[in-house]
Structures are given as structure tokens and as C-alpha cells.
Amino acid sequence: MLLRLHIQNYALIDQLTVDFNEGFSTLTGETGAGKSILLGALALAVGNRADTSAIGDAEKKCVVEATFNVKPYRLESVFADLDLDYQDETIVRRELLPNGKSRAFVNDTPVNVNNLKTLGQYLIDIHSQHENLELNNNQFQLRVVDAAAKNADLLNDYAETYRNYRKQQTELETLRDEARRLSADYDYNQFQYNQLAEFAPEKINQQEMEDEFQTLSNVVEIQQNLNAAVYLLQDGEQNLLSQLSQLRQTVQQVKRYFPKAADYLQRLESVIIEMKDFAQEIEHDAQQLENQPERLEFLRSKLDQLYGLLQKHQVADVEGLVRIKNELEGKLGKSGNYELRIEQAEKLLAETTERLKGLASQLTERRTKMLEPLSREICSHLTGLGMPNAQLRIDISESSQFTPTGCDCINFMFTANRNRELQNISKIASGGEISRLMLSIKAILSASVALPTIIFDEIDTGVSGDIAHKMAELMSQMAEHMQVITITHLPQIAAKGDVQYRVVKRDVNGTTQTFVEQLSDSERVDEVARMLSGKDITNEARENAKSLLNG
Q: Which of 169, 159, 180 is CA-nearest to residue 348?
């Protein structure tokens, strides 16, 4: 239940703190006194849209803080789902900053507004005249039937299964799309892979191939030059080895009287040995070389293939081709695996669909059973509210498509008059009739839904006299299950409250401000009398007020 509401710098309120009581409380005041301001501030605190125009002093921040006792309502799991610390006495706070930004807190922990709004739905139901329009909404009508049928647990099971169903549908369609795409590419990928597999780039040494190709392409020229080198080294008349031998003999001549010549001779001997080996190697290589046109043509073809594949796949070397080949092999393997994956996904979706059908069928059955009892109970309340001829029929139709709430569509058909055709509520109900119908529904739901607090904002619009008294009785009955706060302009309802508050405007330091006062017994007499007779309170009005308050 709502324990306390603190408002700072909101509209006509500078500083205001109101402590609320359990049971049935009424808020009264002259038109324009600011009753709607209180409602707007409270709605802001539980996550409604922020409007910086509501800030009183544009240079200061606006703060709205509401304290709730949530211990009896078992909301621990709700707090856990929202990743919030649970406290029996929970404080929600909303701040509007002059720069237009908004901040929200739950028990001093920052939260985003969506989470605050989600939590707020478990704390308070603010029923304004605007909400009466929801009665024309088929989804609202469905929620009414579900609440009366106590379908919450079944709806949760259905909702979770529906989310899995939609997720599995998406996953299956994604698999099918990928399979179709891969299938379209399969032949092309297979051709590409076969081409690379046949070429076998992993077995290719590009540098060795290019070197061999260059050698075979120039074998005649290489042999000529190698033979020329052998001639110069050992076969020519003035070959290098002969000259080195002569040099060795010349140095040998001076060895006995030039000691350093021994070092020259040692070095010359090494050069001669190296040149002999060098000449033999060149001669051997020259003899080994031969013209190999078939091998040359093979290398030319292989290199042409290599260069073509490198250009085709836009890679720089054979390592890149090996990588492309492996990627294509993976795609081909993945494509072959899709059939099994799709089959498994279809099986899983079929199982979920069957479960969803079963849960939807249970919802339909429970809803159908509730339609007539709910209609009778609502009409019973309407009779007590001065609508004895009211008739309500709740139609249910089943769709072949799953929705987040099942396969059912609910439609309230209504008439307030005898021997009139039942029609859609939006076509035939007046504002006063809608208010009484909505109050009847809320009264029924109050015993089914564990909601700590409900606030009615002038739900008595369009009614008066004995009907207002009966509406007050009904709200008083609701207050046996929950905290009920009613903003009213009717004395019959104001007098029925366990506690009464008055909203007033006063001029303070040249500015108009709104205040809320909890009335004493004598003040309640005067306030109800004012509501009966206007500003000039008569003795008769006071007596009538006392009668209402004691009734």
C-alpha cells in the first residue's frame, strides 16, 4: 500500500508530504485546487512519461518520492527479475532536472524508467477517466477475463512457451534461408573446390617451380656459359689453373730467402684446390643439363594455373590458395549438414507448437467457463449501481494464429436498457455507464488480483444521488482487500471514506501553491457540507453531512 507521497517543486507544489492510511481514503477539493496535480506526480513516480513543463521553479530539480509497504504482496521475484534489492518498505523516486533529463531510483538504486514502470504496475493502479476508454479495447477485456479466471500462472507458462515458439520459428527460418543460399552457391563452391583440390596448392613450392622453369627455359645458354667457364678455368691454353700453377712456382723460387713466401704458397694452394673443385662442379653441372621440353611444358602449364588461381581468388601466394580451399571445404560440409539441422529444428518446433496448442486450449477452456459467471457478477454490481436492466454478454472467438496471450479474442457486448440489442460497448455506453461498468469490473478484480493500491480519479463522473452512494459502498467493499484512494466531487463518496483529505490552493509569498490536509471529524463535516451546498454552508447542509458521515 501507499504509505507516503513526497513532492518537491512540481507544478503548484513547492514542498508537500502526505501520509496515507490503509482502507478507503477520499480526496476532495474545489475544482482547480490541484487534485489532478497529485495524480500526475504519483504517476510520474511510478514511471509515467516525464514532462519538464511540470517543474515548478525551472531553476531547480523536481522530486517525487513514493513509499510503499509491499511486504504482504510477495514481490521478491519481481524485484529479482528487475535486478533490484527487495525491501518490505520500498521507496521509488523520480527526479526531473532543469536540463530536461530524468532520473529514477528504487530504494536509492538507479533504475531505467522502463523497469520503474514495470515495478509500478505491481504497486498501484491509477484509474483515470482516460482508462475508462480501455474498456473498449479487446486486449483489456481479455485481461479482465484472465484476471477473473485466475489465469496468471497459466498465462506465464503460455507466454514463456510462446517466446520459445517464436524464437524457434526464427531460428528455423534462418536455417532454411542459409540452406537455400548455400544450395544456390553449392555447385559453384563445389566447382571452385574441385579446381583447387585438383591443383593441390598444399603440394606446390612456388619458388622451386619458378627456379626450375627459368633454368629449363635457358638451358642452352646456361650450358654454353658453363662450358666457357670450364674452358677458362682448366681447358684453355691460358687457363686459370695453369696460371695459378705458374704463380706457385714463381713464389716457390723466393721461399728460401723470403720467409713470408711460405704464407703466400699456403694461400695459393688453397686457391688452387678451390678452383679445381669449382671447375669440376661447373663441368659436372654443365654435363647434367639437358633440354627437357616436356618438363618445361609441364612447368609452364602448372605456373600458368598457379598464376591464374592467384589472380582469380585475389591472394598473393599458395598459402592463400590453401586457405581458400579449406574455406570452400568447410562451406560444402556445412551445406551438407543443414538438412540434419533443419530436421532437428523442425522437430523441436513441432514439439513446442503442440505444447503451445495445449496451453492455448487450456486458456480457452478456462476463459470460456468464466464468461457467464463474470457477466452475471458484473451485471449484479450494475444492478446495485442503478442499472437494473443492464445486460452484458462476453463473446469469445478463437483464432488459428497464436498470439502472445493465446488464440482467443474477447468482445464485451452491452446494453443498459431492456429489450435493446447488445452492441459493442463503444457504440452504446454513456460516460456514466462506462464509469459504473469499469467500477464493477475493478471491484471484481480487486478480490482476484493482489494489487496493493488503486486510485480512482473522478470515476463518479456522470452519476449522482443514490447511485453515488452505491458506488461508495462498492469502493468501500474493495477497500477490504486493498488500499483504495478516490478523488471525488460527490459528497456521498467523500463521506464514505475512512479518511478524508482536502486539496486546497493558497497564496504564499505572492505565488499560488497547492496543499493537502488530512481532515479532522469536524473538518470533514464542513467539507462534505460545502460539497452539498457550495461556499455558503447552511445548517441543513451540516446536518446532511453528519448524516452521510454517520451513515
A: 169
Query: pTM for the full model?
Result: 0.65
Distance CA 278, CA 58 (A): 99
> Beta-carbon neighbour count of residue 151 at 10 Å?
23
Q: Cα-flanking dihedrals φ and ψ of residue 528, to 5°? A: -65, -40
User: Which stretch of DSSP H or E encloses residue 525?
Assistant: helix 521-533
Q: Are 91 and 66 in contact (CB under 8 A)?
A: yes
Q: How far apart are the C-alpha atoms of 123 and 106, rounded to whole Å?
A: 12
Instruction: Give me the pLDDT at residue 267, please.
Output: 93
User: Per the structure block, which three cell numbers stand in for 64?
Assistant: 517525487
* Strand-pair category, 24-28 with 62-69: unpaired
What 3-state class would DSSP assign to 50? Answer: coil
Confidence of residue 129 (pLDDT cuts 50, 70, 90): low
Residue with cell 566447382: 191
Grid coordinates standing for 53?
513543463
Task: Record the cell numbers describing residue 432, joined without a space.
Answer: 456514466
pLDDT at 130 > cutoff 70: no
Name the nearest CA neighbour of 78 among 451, 483, 481.
451
Torsion of CA 243, 249, 254, 255, to 10 degrees: 120
Q: Domain 2-150+385-519 falls in which CATH fold?
A: Rossmann fold (3.40.50)
Residue 287 cell numbers, joined: 654435363
**pLDDT of 333-360, one tens digit each?**
766 677 888 999 999 999 999 999 999 9
Q: Which of 187, 71, 81, 201 is nearest to 123 (CA)?
A: 71
DSSP per-residue letters across 135-189: GG-HHHHHHHHHHHTT-HHHHHHHHHHHHHHHHHHHHHHHHHHHHHHHHHHHHHH
Question: What b-and-e string marks burial along 445-458, b requiring 16 or more CB atoms within 10 Å of the CB?
Answer: bbebbebbbbbbbb
Reported as a pLDDT band with limits 50, 70 and 90, residue 424 is: confident
**200-209, 327-336, 410-419: range with lowest mean pLDDT:** 327-336
What mean pLDDT comes out for the span 13-21? 91
- The mean pLDDT value for 34-51 works out to 84
CA distance 466 to 42: 31
* Residue for grid cell 504482496: 73
Q: Where does the chain hold its CATH 3.40.50.300 domain(s)?
A: 2-150+385-519
Q: For the chain, what is the mean pLDDT?
A: 88
* Residue 504: C-alpha distances to residues 29, 44, 521, 527 (Å): 6, 21, 18, 11
Nearest Cα to 6, choosing from 82, 106, 94, 114?
94
Q: What pLDDT shows up at residue 273?
A: 93
